[in-house]
Design a protein that fits this description.
Blueprint: E1 4-10, H1 17-26, E2 33-37, E3 63-65, E4 71-74, H2 79-87, E5 95-99, H3 106-111, E6 122-132, H4 133-137, H5 145-153, H6 164-174, E7 177-181, H7 188-201, E8 207-210, H8 218-221, E9 264-271, H9 277-291, E10 295-301, E11 307-314, E12 317-325, E13 333-340, H10 345-353
Parallel strand pairs: 1-5, 1-6, 2-4, 2-5, 6-7, 7-8
Antiparallel strand pairs: 3-4, 9-13, 10-11, 10-13, 11-12
């Protein structure tokens, strides 16, 4: 049985987690996404966005059907029963997205996916850490550090002694993707410098993306395929106070106006049949590294094989398998390339077609 992928979204109060998630729900592209949040009040969404769900009237232990096919629920008392409830649903979600509270460590949550009741049914697709680009570039970790400290002091379940800097380091250490939000408030040089610094602080192959208004394409945010729960040793915590209790912060810096995907672009490359699939994949890995491509997906026609070779790359990692016969379709290679805007489309296209 294929495990259901789950994405963990973490980051401090005000970084923009809610904006990111709201944008994702609005652009779900037919995916049935289950969203797990601390409290409905956290979501800061108006009913219009969740298409008529009167979310403010929902009690804490409700699971709400959203009319776009998504579902929304709270971590009522415990994470595991919530997950078991979602996994038992028919039809099951295509993807589960979990928004952690702003001061909860991501590591204990990821470890919980090894729990016997759920470990065979769900896997951590990736951990996304959202940072407030403006605040972090100015040496703070949040837009309003005093509010963050007050929030922490009010919650008995949280560790009150650890400096915020160490909590931030834990969020970076656990990340598979770091989203530098509010990049529109930085100059190009400041944004590039912050991106470079965070890349240096993160583990190898972690993608660091700049965005504003949390406007990430769903194809970039979901589908990382990491299996983070099997990789805990690499995601070390700076300190070891395992407080799994969630606080109930909310992001108050949301804006209602919509932003497009100006920071991202995608294009399609078609190429002839491929003689040697392994050599072709090695070439794609080199192209991805040279041009900083985020995602690459599609299929190739392999000489002498009736089946399509499906290819999916996240950063430098490429998965491939033969999925189905071509039938009457043209035998060609067709790949979608996704990256931050400014990709050298001509060079990438030439390199793939070569």
């Amino acid at each position: 049985m294929q495990k259901i992928p789950a994405t963990v979204v973490t980051g401090f109060l005000g970084a923009g987690k809610t904006t990111l998630i709201r944008h994702m729900l609005q652009n779900a592209e037919g995916k049935r996404i289950a969203l797990v949040i601390n409290e409905f009040g956290d979501l800061g969404v108006d009913g219009e966005i969740l298409r008529g769900c009167g979310i403010e009237n929902c009690s804490d232990d409700d699971i709400v059907e959203l009319s776009n096919g998504c579902i929304c629920c709270t971590v009522a008392d415990d994470f595991i029963p919530t997950m078991e409830g979602l996994l038992a649903r028919d039809p099951a979600p295509d993807h589960i997205v979990i928004e952690t509270s702003g001061l909860a460590l991501p590591q204990p949550l990821v470890r919980a996916f090894n729990w016997p009741g759920i470990s065979t049914k769900v896997t951590v697709d990736g951990v996304v850490t959202v940072v407030d680009g403006k605040a972090v570039s100015e040496g703070r970790f949040a837009h309003d550090v005093a509010a963050l400290d007050a929030q922490r002091a009010a919650d008995d379940g949280l560790d009150h002694d650890t400096p915020l800097g160490e909590l931030f380091e834990d969020q970076i250490a656990c990340a598979d993707m770091i989203v530098v939000n509010k990049a529109d408030l930085l100059s190009a040089a400041e944004a590039d410098e912050l991106q470079t610094r965070l890349k240096a602080e993160a583990r190898n192959s972690v993608q660091v993306l700049k965005t504003s208004m949390g406007a990430l394409p769903v194809d970039v945010l979901l589908g990382q395929g990491v299996g983070a729960e099997e990789d805990m040793a690499a995601r070390h915590e700076v300190h070891h106070h395992h407080h799994d209790d969630d606080d109930h912060g909310s992001d108050h810096h949301d804006h209602s106006h919509e932003h497009g995907h100006d920071e991202f672009e995608s294009f399609v490359v078609t190429a002839p049949e491929v003689d040697d699939p392994e050599a072709f994949k090695a070439k794609l890995v080199a192209i991805i590294a040279e041009h900083d491509v985020l995602r690459l997906k599609g299929f190739a026609a392999v000489t002498g094989k009736p089946m399509r070779l499906t290819l999916q790359a996240v950063g430098p990692r490429i998965d491939s398998y033969f999925d189905r016969p071509f039938g009457s379709e043209t035998r060609e290679t067709r790949l979608v390339v996704i990256g931050q805007s400014g990709l050298d489309q001509a060079a990438i296209t030439a390199a793939i077609q070569k």
